[in-house]
Amino acid sequence: MTAAFGSSMPLLEIDNLVTTFHTPGGRVPAVDGVSLSIERGRTLGLVGESGCGKSVTAMSILRLVAAPGVIEAGRIILSPAGGLSRAGGLSRAGGSVDLVTLPESQLQEVRGGRIGMIFQEPMTSLNPVLTIGDQIAEAVLLHRKVSREAARARSLEMLKLVRMADPERRLDEYPHQLSGGMRQRVVIAMALACEPDLIIADEPTTALDVTIQAQILDLLADLRRRLGTAILLITHDLGVVAETCDDVAVMYAGRIVEQATTAELFARPRHPYTIGLLAARPEGGGHGSRAAGRLQTIPGMVPAPQHFPAGCRFHPRCAFARQPDCSAAMPELREVAPGHLVRCLYAESLGPPHCIDDLYQEIA
Amino acid sequence: MSDMSARGFWAEAWARYRRKPLAMAALVFVACLATVAVFAPAIAGTKPVLCRYKGHLYAPCFGYFDRRLEPAIFAKDRFRGTYPRNLQEKDPKSWAIWPLVFQDPHRAVRDNEWPGRPGNPAKDEGRPNAINLCGTDQYGVDVFAKMVHGTTIALLVGVVSMGLAGTIGIIVGALGGYFGGWVDMLTSRLTEIVMCVPTLVLILAVVAIVEKPTIWKTMAIIGMTGWTGIARLTRGEFLRLRQSEFVTAARATGAGPVRIMLRHILPNALAPVLVPITFGIASAILTESALSFLGFGPPPPAASWGSLLNDARSNLSMWWLVVFPGVAIFLTVLAYNLIGEGLQEVTDPRLREARK
Fold it and tell me: What number is the ipTM of this complex?
């Protein structure tokens, strides 16, 4: 019953999240009204340039934003452990909780227990003075009432799950003895140790070389299939998104500008920023620019949060911007096709990619 | 990968430390001092280490640690502290194992106390010789025995006071560095206030007020004023490590602040904090010596190296009263400084790289 009810609502729903940094230079809204929902067992890609607020969004979910960052508004609703519920789960598995207002002690149960996190830099996200086994076992011991031996056994099991070579030996080794890819496997093992419902992966492959990247992405996809864990994948790499994600949200300057299923977004991007991002890929999909041997770029830079322009924040860089409409008011995020949300006044008129290619050509 | 990478941080640091001859020598020296401190009654004393008397085994030498540990039977049989002749006279079948050097740190050895050996010379006659290795003071008490028994104090002062200072400093620094904000404000100001207190003057004041000044009170004061440097360093390390990704990762797995401070940050911050603690031991020994030299040392009969120097103040012609304790203090302080420097070199990655 509960499982059926639980599955009808998203696992995690972020509603109008505002996270700002109070710096000596003023109030900096790094995340400015982001709404997202993550369904059970699905992978959502959160894409954007550096500084667009995607990492801050991720950190806000577990309230890990470091001072002077503050979550100023919004709700982050985590629905109860449902369907795949395990015995001895959280005490208040009865209802949804708002992570923004949840008391710290209960939040600690959510961290690592219901939501696991994978960080960008496997070199620095492991404690250098603790052995691999100790670190995974700690994640287990924090959330499960088991003996040290059982936790160690679980650590070994997790290392096997993430396909670590020679897991028995790795258990007693220190992080500096492992390669980057192996460390990232350990971080994934830690995040998965307590079978969370959601994994937040903040650019998990950025620091790794390409072959290892593919292995880690394969691993994540495989684990999601086997464990039914939802994944929030934060990345700036559209290639990664295309390979691994079910849904995509594109962020620009602290806001979601477009959200759709991966297939829909790649086939019919509607926001000029998304169109620009797709055109900027080396494997840009038969765009005219490719013949010239040069990559398409989006002119200009992401504005600093203190200097966000009025109206649509992308309009100064937008090839399709029309004055005065685009600088008059912030466009709403609206549904242009079923499940396809876009924050652009002219989303409908921006057709299939090849038309846009022509437009870019004209401007160039 | 070399075999060095197969060990943890401390094992690796130790492997590097072992290759530093000077630092190793200093460590061995301190280890020897600790041995001397523990076995002081067996090295110099007039009480048998072990003896058989009237059919029972006794170890009167423990009387040097505490009077009450001296077996009561010897007081009852009126030994009055002189064992060799009394043992022979009162129980001809008795036997005893004597300390290496038959000299007492508290009193002069009398004529014929050890069969056939003259008593210790008093006044300025007692220059170093085969019987009094480091000479005797103006009362005829053997300087070597005094120094051997003073080792305990010298080492205790350093270790106890810095143990206290380290505990306070790490706690204060950790709180300030980890929590920041008003906690940091409070602990930093407290540190600065304590830093302004001149240790020596405070001790002199306390010693003047307190009825029974003991060496423990001195250690407590050195400890309670000497933690500021440690606190500042710990704070800095915690500030730095608090921002590190593995701490965020630990928080993301659900670890609470206490666990993060103790298990994740402290072990990483400990190496640099150990260095000022080691240097602090050296300076605590110096402070104690200075106090004793000024006449505020441990009350007699306990004698520290510094109080030996104090004796020398009024007897400058007796050079051995200056040289031997002075050298002992110098070498001990030097050893601790060398150990501190060695620790710094093997644990600080920047220095480590520079030396390669």
Answer: 0.81
